[in-house]
Amino acid sequence: MAEIDARPEDLLKQRLGRISYRAWRRGFREADMVLGPFVDQVGPTLSEAELDELEHLLNEEDQYLYAWIIEKEPTPPEFDGPMLARIRAFMRKHVAAEVAKGIG
Q1: What is the pLDDT along the chain (104 residues), one digit of tens a residue?
Q2: Alpha-carbon Rg of the chain, whole angstroms?
Q3: What is the per-residue pLDDT for 74?
Q4: DSSP string spanning 60-81?
Q5: 65, 31 Cβ separation under 8 angstroms
Q6: Which is nearest to 103 in space by CA: 28, 54, 44, 37?
């Protein structure tokens, strides 16, 4: 009943919270370290349609999703879209920044 009366910005905040939880707690550490920071940093800027696309990706099994992100395995056409491209670009930048700090 509370969601019916909630403001759109509150519903968006709740949705982002659920997405963030799923991104950080994949059960596959490498995926967590890409998807968690991506959602934290980029998630608030995404449109409803982009959030739909992100959730579609998050519904996939970790080993497949991470293999697509690092381009170890071919990505099925239905997942190879703008959101996966953004995640890949974020990962390259994020990993490079961490390496520059002395990690790895």
Answers
A1: 455 667 888 898 999 999 999 999 988 888 998 999 999 999 999 999 999 999 999 999 999 999 999 999 999 999 999 999 999 999 999 877 776 776 55
A2: 15
A3: 96
A4: S-HHHHHHHHTTSSPPPTTT-S
A5: yes
A6: 37
Q: How far is CA 82 from CA 7, 54, 101, in A?
A: 29, 10, 29
CA atoms within 13 A on the CB side of 53: 16
| CA pair distance 97, 47, nearest whole angstrom | 26
d(CA 56, CA 93): 23
* Residue 57 contacts residue 65 (beta carbons within 8 Å): yes
pTM: 0.84
Exposed/middle/buried for residue 67 (C-beta within 10 Å: 0-12, 13-18, 19+): middle
> Count of residues for the chain?
104
